Amino acid sequence: MKAALLVEVLFMYNKKYQIHEVDVPKYGENDLLVEIGAAGFCHTDCQVYEGFYQSQTPQIGSHEPAGTVVAVGSKAAKSFNEDQRATVWGGISKLGLPAGESVGVLGIGGLGGLGVQFCKALGYSTVAIDNRPEGRDLATEFPLKADLVIDYNDEMAGEKIVEWSGKGGLAGIVVCTDNVQAIEWSLKTLRPHGICVPLGVPGEGFHFGSFDLIGKEIIVKGSGVANRSEVEEMMKVVASHGVKSYVRTVPFEKTPDLPEMYMDNHLKGRLVMGF
């Protein structure tokens, strides 16, 4: 089968992906063999490409694949069947807030665009925040639209959000960027005891203002990946509310150009490789 490989020597990164023929993976009794139909390219993939994780190479790109189960291990067969679809909800569920509360989504790209729709489907009053017109447009692209869209570059952005939300600020905010300054700023939009869930992983670590964090007793929760029950719940919401992803499909042979496409400041939605 063909695969796009990050092929490096002595951990030298930032080189174009190379398309190679590779063996079909062997699977064990607890495994599924999935034929990939599409794969997203996100910020984590870009960090791997840049060498942030010092990942072992050669490595096949993308950790956001979607496809069809074509073979099932003997023990996995208790839960999965061939021809089932396998795909990639955690940060919003970490908020743990009841419907009707005010929630912010900071960074409206491939992840944030879905976040806005999920928040609306769950009954939250939702504000979308982005510094790019493409991101702000995406927040109202689908039927599940943000109630308020704010330009992060607006000097009064924080004050406008706090006034709109009432009760001294948002109940929670999900941050879909690794920009350290933006993550720190997000706490200013929260009410006392508000919850911040940062999803981006900045290389230089996090920095929070002590007055915001301690003075308002803000809660910061990490969120890695959703577990299986969370994904099943998410897919029910997707089906019942018509949640959609805005994607830019890239032919597989254009895979070597993905990092450059991803770094385009005018990118809208999610880059997805089609097979």
TrEMBL record:
<keyword id="KW-0479">Metal-binding</keyword>
<dbReference type="InterPro" id="IPR013149">
    <property type="entry name" value="ADH-like_C"/>
</dbReference>
<dbReference type="Pfam" id="PF00107">
    <property type="entry name" value="ADH_zinc_N"/>
</dbReference>
<keyword id="KW-0560">Oxidoreductase</keyword>
<dbReference type="GO" id="GO:0005737">
    <property type="term" value="C:cytoplasm"/>
</dbReference>
<dbReference type="InterPro" id="IPR036291">
    <property type="entry name" value="NAD(P)-bd_dom_sf"/>
</dbReference>
<feature type="domain" description="Alcohol dehydrogenase-like C-terminal">
    <location>
        <begin position="110"/>
        <end position="239"/>
    </location>
</feature>
<dbReference type="InterPro" id="IPR013154">
    <property type="entry name" value="ADH-like_N"/>
</dbReference>
<dbReference type="Pfam" id="PF08240">
    <property type="entry name" value="ADH_N"/>
</dbReference>
<feature type="domain" description="Alcohol dehydrogenase-like N-terminal">
    <location>
        <begin position="28"/>
        <end position="87"/>
    </location>
</feature>
<dbReference type="InterPro" id="IPR011032">
    <property type="entry name" value="GroES-like_sf"/>
</dbReference>
<dbReference type="GO" id="GO:0004022">
    <property type="term" value="F:alcohol dehydrogenase (NAD+) activity"/>
</dbReference>
<keyword id="KW-0862">Zinc</keyword>
<protein>
    <submittedName>
        <fullName>Alcohol dehydrogenase GroES-like domain-containing protein</fullName>
    </submittedName>
</protein>
<comment type="similarity">
    <text>Belongs to the zinc-containing alcohol dehydrogenase family.</text>
</comment>
<dbReference type="GO" id="GO:0046872">
    <property type="term" value="F:metal ion binding"/>
</dbReference>
